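seq as requested:
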Amino acid sequence: RNESEKSRILLASVSGEGSSAFRSSGVEFLTIPTSPIVYWLSSALLQSFAKGRPLRDRAEPRKGMDTGDNARFLRGWWEVSRSKTSLTEFRSGYWVPYNKGGGFRRWYGYREFLVDWRSNGSEMRTRSGARHFGREGWTWGTVTSGGFSIRYTPAGAAFDNGGCTLFSQNDLSVAALILNSTTADSILAAISPTLNFQPINVGAVPIVVSDALSSVADSAVKELVSCSRADWDSFETSWDFTETPWLVKTTSSDQGLETRLAMRADECSARWREITEVQRLREASNNRMVAEAYGLEDEVALDVEKQRVSLTRNVEFR
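struct tokens:
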């Protein structure tokens, strides 16, 4: 806009005639962590901060360590002998899994790196969060342009500042469903309006639990994680990879090899489209349940676009 248009809009807003005018009391922002002046928030979204308890009251979002020399202490899992790695148990004397963030991907994935723990990390710059190393939890990329997403991490891993992790002695299924929802997206946009999601920001997300959400949390998370994990493990870049789906032997032995491979590829593509759609519907259902718990079903998007279904086999996501 040119200066004349900007002046006209400003004058209209000041006089209360324009659509860009917002009126809010500073008292309304006191329920929001750090009291940001988020004057555009609806009353329903503002009330969610008063209605819910901060996530940090029921779980521990933590930053991890800084090796000081990633080129020396980190490797892709395929670069280290299996005899020198411990993929399921965090222990000294081995290379162990290392969560260091990643792009937008929900539920499971970005398990690619190992860290040298043969000397208990004694030569690294810091070992922040070491008392939590080896615990299962939910990890996320601290800095991402693709939006916030959180992933299940099984027991046995360490983590760094780029792969902060959420821990609790209690079940985190409800928290995971909330954090991977459009409701959390709207809340985080108010308390962390940048590309940076630090533990202090994630820990400030208000958690509102409904009976409906609690009753399905365990089974819903298992289905969502299982689907994402199967997708991740279907590629050779996963240390749990077993076989290439389209090379599995079929019953069409009367066909030529080239024909059988083409048929199998078509079958796999159709199957992956089906899996993507099922996962999309699961995530849309989760968005609705979470939004209803917060009273935000008319405030946030409930549907999920196919390109936001974070499965690598989903060609629209890639």
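The chain is about 35% helix and 10% strand.
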